[in-house]
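sanity check this record:

:::
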Amino acid sequence: MMSFFSENRTPVLVVFLLVSFLLLLSFQVRVPDAGVRLQTTLLAICSPVARSSAGLVDGFGSIWRNYLHLQDLSRENRALKRRLVHFQVENQLLQEADREGERLRGLLDLQGRVERPTLAARVISLELAGPFRVAVLNRGHGSGIRVNDGVITPAGVVGRITAASSGMSKVQFITDPSSAAAAVVARTRVQGMVVGRDVNRVEMQYVSALAEVEEGDEVTTSGLDGIYPGGFKVGSVTRVGDGEGLQKRIEITTAVDFWTLEEVLVLLAGPAEDEPGEGGS
């Protein structure tokens, strides 16, 4: 019995107070003055419990309102995150469109400065890691491209066309080991032949050991090979050393970054008859 009261102390106390209050009311009806005194005493006893109960109710209501408010905030937060992701994607697309527009403006400006027909093309495939350093363009002989047409960008020389079909063509970069281009040191007019060595590196050969060449010198095409017009930038000298015999060994970092190549200009040579690799019969 004692364990029942100890385990249910609060409910028993509430029941006791309620019963006492009812008895007080019935007693007040029979004895008015005594009822008032008892009612005052009972109210004094019950008021702390009433205040506690009211506080519990108010506290629970406040907790429930806060919970609902947090649910609303959570939904708003998820919606804001979705909008943020959407805006971030849009921003990236706009930035990429701006970069592409800048590159195309550069090509358009270059077209206006080149004194021969040109054709803009996009790189659709790039091979730099293997023994060959080439790219595939989205234009071919159907657009007027022919084998041995030169390929350039606003930064400098890219390479030459080595094969073309009706809708695509292949470019051999100047950095390809089997590539060669006639070049000149812009400052001293020293002539030589540029051959491929690495992805963004070429070497200038057949330069006399007595020739004046320094690190930092700019190297451009000379136009003597018949593929590239003179004056297009090849790159800058990064090392000058002794070569075989009485020749210098000149290493050049290319002006074009071939890892990031996307659009190019093809220097059109005009119609040609039955060129190899063109896809004709």
